């Protein structure tokens, strides 16, 4: 158990992989991975597969799915017709492609704080120098990477003023905006969700999303639109993988066209809203005084700031010894900040086992705070 915690430290290995491995053990109550529950998965119609869909497909992705996504993006204020949309094998591939496009060793990339762990890993592997979004007082970065809608790990949603301000900064300094937006369809309370990219005037942009959080991770279907950089992104995608699987892409295009996606989202949002409310109440009852919890308007993660005396890396070890797993806060920082913070995933429907896990984790945190 201790060895696992040590490997997670400092982004030296693969925290995501390690936490996923632990979270899939049946004896562990896991709040670690940002995993949707099987109860929220959509069943796409894969019957009667035309034989041609078992052949290699276009590297750009299936045209019908690209067209449907492009139509949605135009409705969000983005100039992204089908020919500027590429289908991905999950959004992690998009982060890799953006890094290959922009990042060399020492390239400055601005990120949120805390930031999405997988992006920190990828940019770090390419040798990026990671800095904050507020670069008014210093040199501008080459790229700004953000998850402004139900951000991972905090769950917060940026205001219109925050989105407009970042767009203005990118326009002023010609900074590439890389906007990652996999959670925008999971809103259950009103909030601003227009893409930051829609506020841009002249700065280049990359905008991506995924169906992993809304339909099912196993379909491995995401997408990326890159404005004037799309040809360069396609070159790197083609070098990375010839094409993605055509079958789930076509099934998903049919699902979107049938109206089934909207009904599915209503059901999923209701589940996550209930989970977040239940988890929030359980945290308030079990965790030490002074604990602060985000109040997201969508998605399924909560960010907790515990009293300064609590070291969540030590808490991670203590909890894992009792069969409970979560994501310690410092893995979401390139500089090791947030040692008294943690992220809890609320993806699985609330039940007695989860309630017991929250209560026990809260007791361990209370003991650490005393």
Describe this structure in words.
The chain is an alpha/beta fold. Helix content is 39%, strand content 13%. The chain contains eleven helices and 13 strands. It has helices at residues 2-8, 15-23, 63-75, 91-102, 117-125, 160-173, 230-240, 246-258, 260-286, 312-321, 352-369; strands at 29-30, 85-88, 108-111, 129-132, 143-146, 176-180, 205-210, 222-225, 292-293, 301-305, 324-325, 327-328, 341-345. The strands form three sheets. The chain has a seven-stranded mixed sheet, with helices on both faces. α4 packs parallel to α5 (117-125) and α10 (312-321) crosses α11. The longest helix is centred in the last third of the chain and has 27 residues, at 260-286. The chain is globular, with a radius of gyration of 20 Å. Residues 1-14 have low confidence and may be disordered.
Q: What features would you highlight for this structure?
A:
370 residues; alpha/beta; Aspartate Aminotransferase, domain 1; Aspartate Aminotransferase, domain 2; 2 domains; 13 strands; globular; disordered N terminus
Number of domains: 2
Q: Which residue ranges are poorly predicted, with pLDDT under 50 across at least 5 consecutive positions?
A: 1-14
**Helical residues, percent:** 25-40%
**CATH topology annotation of the largest domain:** Aspartate Aminotransferase, domain 2
Mean pLDDT, all residues: 89
Give the ordered list of helices and strands.
Answer: HHEHEHEHEEHEEEHHHEEHEEEH
What's the CATH C level of the largest domain? Alpha Beta
Distance between the termini: 24 Å
Identify the quaternary structure here. Answer: single chain
Main beta sheet: 7 strands, mixed
Number of strands: 13
Widest beta sheet: strand line-up? 2-8-7-6-5-3-4
CATH architecture of the largest domain: 3-Layer(aba) Sandwich
The CATH superfamily title of the largest domain: Type I PLP-dependent aspartate aminotransferase-like (Major domain)
Shape: globular
Counting DSSP H or I runs of 4 or more residues, the number of helices is 11
Query: Strand share of the residues?
Result: 5-15%
Structural class: alpha/beta
């Amino acid at each position: 158990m201790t060895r696992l915690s040590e490997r997670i430290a400092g982004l030296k290995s693969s925290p995501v992989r390690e936490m996923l491995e632990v979270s899939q053990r049946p004896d562990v109550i896991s709040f670690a991975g940002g995993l949707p529950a099987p109860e929220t998965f959509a069943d796409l119609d894969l019957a009667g597969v035309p034989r041609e869909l078992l052949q290699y497909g276009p590297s750009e992705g299936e045209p019908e799915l690209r067209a449907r996504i492009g139509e949605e993006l135009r409705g969000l204020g983005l100039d992204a017709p089908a020919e500027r949309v590429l289908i991905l094998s999950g959004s992690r591939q998009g982060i890799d492609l953006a890094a290959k496009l922009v990042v060399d060793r020492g390239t400055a990339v601005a990120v949120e704080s805390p930031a999405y762990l997988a992006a920190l890993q990828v940019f770090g592997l390419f040798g990026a120098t990671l800095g904050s979004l507020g670069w008014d007082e210093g040199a501008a970065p080459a790229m700004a990477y953000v998850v402004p809608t139900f951000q991972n790990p905090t769950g917060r949603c940026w205001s219109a003023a925050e989105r407009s301000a970042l767009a203005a900064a990118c326009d002023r300094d010609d900074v590439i905006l890389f906007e990652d937006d996999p959670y925008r369809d999971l809103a259950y309370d009103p909030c601003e969700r227009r893409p930051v990219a829609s506020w841009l005037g002249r700065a280049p942009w990359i905008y991506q999303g995924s169906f992993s959080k809304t339909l099912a991770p196993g379909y491995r279907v995401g997408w990326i639109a890159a404005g004037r950089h799309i040809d360069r992104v396609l070159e790197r995608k083609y070098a990375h993988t010839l094409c993605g699987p055509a079958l789930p892409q076509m099934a998903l295009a049919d699902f979107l066209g049938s109206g089934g996606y909207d009904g599915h989202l209503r059901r999923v949002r209701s589940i996550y809203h209930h989970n977040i409310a239940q988890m929030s109440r359980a945290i308030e009852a079990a965790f030490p005084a002074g604990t602060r919890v985000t109040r997201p308007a969508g998605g399924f993660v909560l960010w907790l700031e515990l009293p300064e005396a609590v070291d969540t890396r030590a808490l991670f070890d203590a909890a894992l010894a009792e069969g409970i797993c979560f994501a310690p806060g410092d893995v979401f920082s390139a500089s090791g900040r947030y040692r008294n913070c943690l992220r809890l995933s609320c993806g699985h429907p609330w039940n007695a086992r989860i309630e017991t896990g929250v209560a026990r984790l809260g007791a361990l945190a209370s003991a650490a705070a005393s």
